[in-house]
Amino acid sequence: MVVGLGNPGPTYQQTRHNLGWMVLEHAARRWGVALGQQGQALQGQGAIDGRSVLLALPLIWMNQTGEVVYSILQDQHITSSDLILVYDDLDLPLGSLKIKTRGGAGGHNGLRSVLSYLGTEDFCRLKVGIGRPPAHEDPAQYVLSPFTKDERERVDTLLPNAVDALECLMCEGVSVAMNQFHAPSIPEETDEQ
What we know:
alpha/beta, globular, about 35% helix, 7-stranded mixed β-sheet, Rossmann fold, about 190 residues
């Protein structure tokens, strides 16, 4: 099961905090998975290289995501070891990916909610970098703001790469995916000479 984190509604659709959601929408298009509302999530089933996959986009606020993830796992008889959570990360430069199999919330309210409901850290995460805000900007406002035009071009490149990483995770395993996609961070573009 692959879950993309984000906030529901058009106001948040293209914001940095919804990058996990954007990755899953891109995956659904590539894999031909139709997403339809079931309970408190958009869900769809498909197959990747012969492996069954369930995609889910919770339709409640980010900090309540755990309840929906837990409910779907229970309904579908899926264990947390078969969960991949996709979400934005402030500590990674925009465009970089990081794959983890354990760890705490690191300040991410959606991940904190999932950890709380599941009661375990034993699930895979695909962290998608959004970069840090400028020093004068509140991180809470930054994550809820839309990408700039220049950032949007980088996101358009990032999305297929993130879906490639998901395919590799599911078909070839964590170690291969880490070696291939857990690449050195992409440096932030600066105006310095």
